């Protein structure tokens, strides 16, 4: 994992001291509400439904055990005993007291963490594949590149006041697990036909009010030029992005308005000035940054016979291994996903004790490190096969071994109406009600891969547009209703879901999901996933089934 150098540390320490003084002045009445607002937002502090909400940056999802223990301590001491992993790999606390935030930021700085640029119209935390560096299908490890982007974007003076927030995601594997197609800039690390390393650049993706899949503006930018190229993209956006209308301010709207060829032409014109300029990367710079990742050196091990024997002997372990264990690039190792989606818990929540326990698991089994995922789970990147059975038992003891990764109950959900002031409807109780309905593991395994994503409003923090089933909270005359989309997907074949029709009451949602699943089961061909059936037979049959069954159940309820 990346270790701060003295500059990184000084930057963060100075920011903590500055904010401590600003908070003191605000609390003493020396700064007005209006003066304090931008200052607190620059430090990740929102005012939400119940209390301030603190968003802490987790660069490309990487966390070490010391940081996890600090997060556990913060949850226990300053919050209500839990924290939340977000769909941008960050960590949020929902109940800190404003007067405690400087102290929290100070604790974070001591373990090389901060809340800088987790809010506001700047370049936000860069996100990446949670299996970066270990995935069996990886071309290039994206983490050093993410770190270079982090250093370049932190306090970049030209890009501190963009028309709107700006999100960059980086992928270096065959399968895109960073959802680069729904980011402002999506970077895919590739080799050209000459074998040189560079970046395929996608621009203008995003969810929210106007969801759009990003499009390629450059097929290959040599790695030396990637910061210059990103600067060119940001300059065009900074100059021409809509500042008059917050709903139209994202880069996706500009790209759409100009069209990709014209947008790309303008970027090329900017790039012509920037190319080979001060932000040009050198081999020495890459090595400097890559050298600060103190990754374990993994020697290939023989495949573990004990592990394989356990898989045949122990059905519950085998089920967990099938869903939660992933191939590793080094033989004898595996990556493990700890499920933060047990029944009845808000997706992505970890208690203070679980933060500590995950730190313990990381130390014991995975070189002291974990990654947060945009699907709101935790990854232990490098676990010896020989340790998997013990790890499973330990994870089970703390409630983090639900064998449901990628299954119907592994739901992505934003905080919704329980916490978020912008919500039209609740998200967490809907996720929990669906999990309750599908509480039979054998049935879940039979249904197979399916992604349900829930957002409490059109801001789409829960990525509902790219869920195989997307659920969006809507307000109907002051009441909470839910609109359903199907056919969305993330990954290489990212797509936006289609609305199936009028929205449903909260109480209907488990039945709606049941109808959709039953329709899939009736139509699926052997080994076909839900999303593939939807693609093959279309939305109509699902729509007809759901509304017909809702109609008859509503009638039955009135008899
Ligand atoms: C509770 C406080 C939160 C507030 C006030 C908030 C606010 C917003 C707003 C206003 C947008 C739309 C911005 C735009 O595209 O114009 C947005 C988008 C988004 N937020 Fe949140 N959000 C909150 C919590 C979260 C959480 C907890 C997560 C993760 C679980 C999250 C992840 C995202 C993501 C992934 C988007 C995607 C939209 C995009 O950029 O394409 N947010 N949020
Ligand atoms: S989608 Fe809406 S309700 Fe959910 S966290 Fe984002 S802003 Fe809040």
Tally of strands: 21
Shape category: globular
* Biggest beta sheet attributes: 6 strands, mixed
- Secondary-structure content class: alpha+beta
Global Rg: 23 Å
Low-confidence stretches: none
Rounded average pLDDT:
96
| Strand content bin | 15-25%
State the helical fraction.
25-40%
Q: How far do the termini sit from each other?
A: 62 Å
Count of helix runs: 18
Ligand kinds: protoporphyrin IX containing FE, iron/sulfur cluster
What does this structure look like?
The termini are far apart. The model has no long low-confidence stretch (mean pLDDT 96). It is globular and about 70 Å long. It has helices at 6-27, 33-41, 65-78, 101-110, 143-153, 226-240, 251-258, 260-274, 283-290, 305-313, 315-324, 352-365, 388-397, 428-437, 441-447, 509-523, 530-537, 540-558; strands spanning 45-47, 52-56, 62-64, 82-85, 91-93, 127-128, 168-171, 185-191, 197-203, 215-222, 325-327, 333-338, 349-351, 369-372, 378-384, 412-413, 452-455, 469-476, 479-486, 498-499, 504-505. With 559 residues, it is an alpha+beta fold. The strands form 4 sheets. Strands 16, 17, 18, 19, 20 and 21 form a 6-stranded mixed sheet that branches. A 5-stranded antiparallel sheet has the order 1-2-5-4-13. The longest helix has 22 residues, at 6-27. Helix 1 (6-27) packs antiparallel against helix 4, helix 3 (65-78) packs antiparallel against helix 12 (352-365) and helix 16 crosses helix 17 (530-537). It is built from 18 helices and 21 strands. The structure holds protoporphyrin IX containing FE and iron/sulfur cluster.
């Amino acid at each position: 994992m990346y270790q701060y150098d003295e500059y990184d540390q000084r930057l963060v320490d100075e920011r903590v001291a500055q904010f401590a003084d600003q908070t003191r002045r605000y609390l003493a009445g020396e700064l007005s509400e209006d003066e304090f607002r931008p200052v607190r937002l620059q430090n990740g502090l929102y005012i939400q439904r119940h209390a301030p909400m603190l968003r802490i940056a987790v660069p490309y999802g990487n966390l070490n055990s010391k940081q996890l223990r600090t997060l556990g301590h913060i949850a226990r001491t300053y919050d209500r005993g839990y924290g939340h992993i977000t769909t941008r790999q960050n960590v949020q606390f929902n109940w800190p007291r404003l007067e405690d935030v400087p102290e929290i930021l100070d604790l974070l700085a001591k373990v090389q963490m901060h809340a800088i640029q987790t809010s506001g119209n700047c370049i936000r935390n860069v996100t990446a594949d949670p299996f970066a560096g270990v995935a069996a299908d990886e071309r290039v490890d994206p983490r050093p590149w993410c770190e270079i982007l982090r250093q370049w974007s932190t306090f970049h003076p030209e890009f501190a006041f963009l028309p709107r927030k700006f999100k960059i995601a980086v992928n270096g594997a065959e399968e895109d697990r960073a959802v680069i197609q729904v980011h402002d800039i999506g970077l895919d690390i590739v080799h050209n036909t000459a074998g040189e390393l560079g970046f395929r650049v996608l621009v203008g993706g995003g969810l929210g009010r106007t969801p759009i899949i990003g499009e390629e503006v450059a097929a290959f930018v040599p790695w030396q030029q990637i910061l210059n190229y990103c600067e060119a993209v940001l300059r065009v956006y900074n100059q021409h992005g809509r500042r008059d209308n917050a709903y139209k301010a994202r880069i996706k709207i500009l790209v759409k308005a100009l069209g990709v060829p014209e947008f790309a032409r303008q970027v090329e014109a900017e790039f012509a000035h920037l190319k080979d300029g001060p932000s040009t990367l050198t081999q020495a710079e890459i090595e400097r940054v890559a050298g600060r990742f103190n990754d374990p050196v993994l020697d290939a091990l023989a495949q573990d016979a004990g592990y394989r024997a356990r898989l045949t002997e122990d059905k519950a372990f085998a089920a967990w291994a099938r869903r939660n264990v992933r191939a590793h690039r080094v033989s004898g190792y595996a990556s493990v996903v700890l499920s933060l989606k047990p029944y009845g818990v808000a997706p992505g929540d970890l208690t203070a004790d679980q933060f500590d326990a995950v730190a313990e698991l990381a130390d014991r089994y995975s070189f002291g490190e974990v990654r947060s995922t945009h699907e709101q789970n935790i990854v232990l990147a490098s676990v010896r096969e020989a340790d998997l059975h013990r790890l499973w038992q330990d994870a089970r003891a703390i409630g983090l071994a639900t064998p449901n990764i990628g299954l119907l109950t592994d739901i992505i959900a934003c905080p919704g109406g329980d916490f978020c002031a912008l919500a039209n409807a609740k998200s967490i109780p809907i996720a929990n009600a669906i999990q309750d309905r599908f509480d039979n593991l054998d049935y879940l395994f039979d249904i197979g891969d399916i992604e349900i994503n829930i957002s409490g409003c059109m801001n789409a923090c829960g990525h509902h547009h790219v869920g195989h089933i997307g659920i969006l909270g809507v307000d109907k005359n002051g009441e909470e209703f839910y609109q359903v989309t199907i056919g969305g997907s993330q990954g290489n074949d990212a797509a936006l879901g289609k609305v199936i029709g009028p929205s449903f009451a909260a109480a209907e949602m488990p039945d709606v999901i049941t109808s959709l699943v039953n329709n899939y089961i009736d139509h699926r061909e052997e080994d076909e996933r839900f999303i593939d059936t939807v693609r093959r037979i279309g939305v109509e049959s699902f729509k007809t089934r759901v509304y017909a069954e809702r109609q008859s159940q509503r009638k039955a309820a009135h008899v």
